[in-house]
Design a protein that fits this description.
3-stranded antiparallel β-sheet; 7 helices; elongated
């Protein structure tokens, strides 16, 4: 507020618009899964990875004998629509012959913690999404009972604005805010100029 008292921050779910929103100036930056190919008018900064955990209410019976059997037995809550995109959890489970029973689907992560606190549902989500909700909603965090590949994430900006002083200032604020939530990749934080 001191550095830019007239600035407003708007957090948007831009969905299928993806890079068009950056190129059109609709958004200043975008954070999402790392891609091997992106629009040549966009720069990508690798910012780390999201690790997976399971979340349940503190009195959930699955905690007494936690493992693949409990994970498969109890119903789950899932964010988003089925088959909307590749799901690392379902891919990892399927490779072991496991399948989760989706009982509830919700449109956003903000609906997960209240639902978990009042039920015996399980959520398998990136740790960063839920870590601030654990104490407030009385939730327990459990390790995934099988390996789920972390999701590498990048911060994307339009090339035409990447050297702009205001854009650099905003990007530095976002990076400092998001850094505690991300596990670092082996290569650290580096700006990539490669493009499709």
């Amino acid at each position: 507020r001191a550095a830019a008292p007239q600035a407003q921050l708007e957090w948007l779910d831009i969905g299928v618009k993806n890079f068009a929103a950056l190129l059109d100036g609709e958004v200043d930056l975008m954070i999402g899964p790392s891609l091997t190919n992106w629009h040549p008018g966009v720069e990508a900064l690798q910012i780390g990875r999201l690790e997976w955990r399971c979340f349940v209410s503190q009195n959930h019976p699955a905690q007494d004998d936690w493992g693949v059997d409990a994970w498969s037995l109890w119903p789950h809550i899932q964010v988003g629509l089925p088959d909307a995109q590749r799901n690392p959890v379902d891919e990892a489970a399927s490779s072991l012959g496991l399948r989760r029973k989706i009982a509830v689907r919700v449109p956003s992560f903000s609906a997960v913690a209240p639902a978990l606190s009042e039920s015996h549902l399980i959520a398998t989500l990136p740790h960063a999404v839920m870590r601030s909700q654990l104490r407030a909603w009385g939730l327990a965090e459990l390790p995934t009972p099988f390996d789920v590949s972390p999701i590498d994430h990048a911060l994307y900006v339009a090339r035409r604005t990447s050297k702009d002083e205001a854009q650099q200032w905003f990007k530095s604020l976002v990076l400092s805010a998001i850094h505690p939530f991300m596990s670092e990749t082996g290569s650290g934080l580096q700006l990539s100029n490669a493009h499709a």
